[in-house]
Amino acid sequence: MILERSQHGFVQVLTLNRPEAANSLNPELIGELTKAFTEISTDDATRVVVVTAAGERVFCAGMDLQAFAASSGESGPSTDASSSDASESKGFNFFGPDFKKPVIAAVNGAAVGGGFELVLNCDLVVASESSRFGLPEVKRGLLAAGGGTLLGTRIPLAIALEIALTGEFISAAQAAQWGLVNRVVAPEQLIESALELAGQIAANAPLAIQTTRTLTRRAVETDPSKGWGTPAELGVVFGSEDAMEGAMAFMEKRSPNWKSR
Predict the structure, then answer these.
(1) Does the annotation mark 137 as catalytic?
(2) Mind listing the GO biological process terms from this record (predicted)?
(3) Which of 106, 134, 145, 147 could pair with 169 in a Cys bridge, judged by C-beta atoms 3.0 to 4.6 Å apart?
């Protein structure tokens, strides 16, 4: 399968499975990713998503240009991330702005171009010590039109510009130092560490997690004032059964039983 899916409690792991093609994104894989996130968005059995890849050397090499060239020749205009149409789209955010569940990237190797942009669209990042990150588009006369130009919303602007303008790679240690990566672990501990982090999140109230994620990201990506929830958004959490359950569980000194409502 080009995209492997496995369930670990309330966590679903999506594994890009094209190691022979550096896990690059072709139309089929993009379609499977989009389908998976669409299904997960309404699945109460999944509270957190982990995105990783097969192999040890490459997380994702970005767009499979050969596949897209062949596809565009058969069906019309190019869907290459460097095209103007793609630059006006959601880039490599396969879950879209309405997706509310936390997504963790478990980066097992090089995340290049669109692969790095896929990582940037995730909420948290666990990286192996051997992983690297880069936006080399400028070295090919292109630009990182799939979300790479938003790097400055994640790390200091001067550092973001250095990465984007030089096209050079940064190590996992550098990425962690600049706040782009949450945890750097040995390669053999990558999935275990990502699942541990995901499990810590999934143990909390689903509605509270989703609204907190939405408001926190919105404050950074749009306007700080948008980090304040609307009455409707706050009501979803504070008026929920889970809010009552959390209080009762605390008083009764037991683990809460979340209902996602």
Answers:
(1) yes
(2) fatty acid beta-oxidation
(3) 134
In this prediction, residue 84 carries a pLDDT of 36
- Which residues of the chain are under the pLDDT cut of 50? 75-89
**What is the pTM (predicted TM-score) of this model?**
0.89
pLDDT for res 8: 97
Please count the other Cβ atoms lying within 10 Å of the Cβ belonging to residue 40.
20
Domain ranges of the chain: 3-202, 206-252
The CB-based long-range contact list for 174-182 (8 Å cut-off, 24+ gap) reads: 175/125, 175/127, 175/133, 176/127, 179/154, 179/155, 180/125, 180/133, 180/154, 180/155, 181/107, 181/125, 181/126, 181/127, 182/124, 182/125, 182/126
Q: What is the CATH number of domain 3-202?
A: 3.90.226.10
Catalytic residue among 4, 32, 56, 117: 117
